[in-house]
Specification:
With 560 residues, the protein is of the alpha+beta class. It has eight helices and 26 strands.
Length: 560
Amino acid sequence: MGAAVSVDAHHHLWDLSVRDQDWITGPELLPLRRDFTLGDLEPQAGAAGVERTVLVQTVTVPEETPELLLLARGSELIGGVVGWADLTRPDIAEELARLAELPGGRYLRGVRHQVQGEPDPAWLLRPEVRRGLAAVAAAGLVYDLVVLPRQLAACVPRGRRRPGRRTAAAHSYGGRRAPRRPQGSRVDGSGDVKVLIPALLAVLAFVWVPLSGPVAVAADRPSVGLSKSQAGAGGSITVSGSDWGAKRLLMILICGQSVPSRGVVGGTNSCANADGRAVTTDAGGRFERGLPVVEPPRPCPCVVHVATVTGPKAAADAVLVVAGHSVEPLPEEAAGGRLSVLTDTRLDGSGTLLAWFGSPPSRRLVFTVGNTGTTPVRNPVFQVGTAHGVFAPRWEEQQWRGTIAPGRKARVSLPVELPAGAHGDYTVSLKYGGRVLAEQPWGVGRPWGVTLFWILVCVVVPAAVFRAGMAVVDRVRPRRTSGRGGRHRGLRLPERAPRAPGPGRSGSRSAKPASGSPAAPAPPALPWFTPDTDPGTPAAPQLSAPHENGPTTPTRRGNT
């Protein structure tokens, strides 16, 4: 079993500028006629060691529950929401399913109707209400009771008829003192003790069963748990966690002026860095590490801050009360309202042909944000950062035009552009109010068009230079005045000189050409022989008969 979690099982938040609380009447309730926001709750919860709370509805209007779910979605302090739904509507099951699909719908833990305002003391026994309660049980939710003494009798039969239904008593007397009754008096045969014992047991079941898991906060982000939520300087605690990823190096610090919903406000300068610890997760993404308790450099509220050193960026905080350390209110947030990312971010767009040749890659970062604060956010300025690999992000301010009212959401699209020729693994980060809201990986392909261009340059340019050089050589080389023309002025063979016919060779095959006929051209001479040393031509005119100066000796026929 994980470490115990300190839970405030019932609190309210409201903004009178958004919706009036018409039940706040009379001088005794005058101190409540003001706004109560997360900014008021978080320092008090941190100072008291409260790690999770249950946010409960206040007015019976359908618009309030989605707003409460949105607040829970943006806060790590709120572990569950008890909303309102009209139990008498025929499609109550569909309405509960719709609420569960809203942003933050997974925080819906129960449903409450202010029965103390119903004039009928048997309102809970009406058939349409019973049908609605059955839908609440089928949805796995808790029904939160708020009744007057005269309505208590209707609560017990409901629990007896549906023993598997979970019920919690929020205000068994509707916030007012119960009228005195004589000892032993009964309400429809049921004593107060018999009525309140099941209600108190249901309260315990409500707090323990639905909220025993929020130490993990959510299945899609890492969690941190402490062996004890309060310790003095010089002591030690055990920090454990899960869902951090396998074999990740983590850093564990004690930080001041911090709450889980806002993170480490002053950065790591608010933390006791010299007394931090490092730990590596196991194959299942879990870890457990001892941590000495020291006083951080800033006052409390304090947290144990765990963040990744290797792998994807992730962080989580757990409330720690450092006994004896000073406590001061958190600084005011820089901007009015608070924005939280409600959906996963994505990058829209695709690469163009120009990007294939090295132009700057561009996309649009699309996300949905909700205003979890109490004042409208007008024309918010986001910071969009791009980081290559392990390098720090390069931030650029992007303003979105529009207004986000408290409890509302908006779809935001911001342009993102990388330098020309960029390629590889990039990370796009989104920051608002000094907090990193989301990170989105971006794998940028190599601009192969540039590579192809340089390959062509390396092949075409040398070939072009060679052809140009050959053209220059052809122009500067002197031309021969005789001989056959043409492009190829190579080596020419020497021309063979005609041989004069010797005596007695008139009948030979080398007949004298007829007069008037053109003489046969002389064979060309080889360039490495002069006409006098040509092996195929005698140095002087020779007779056709064999001669001792001839190149060969004739073969004689017959006997020698």
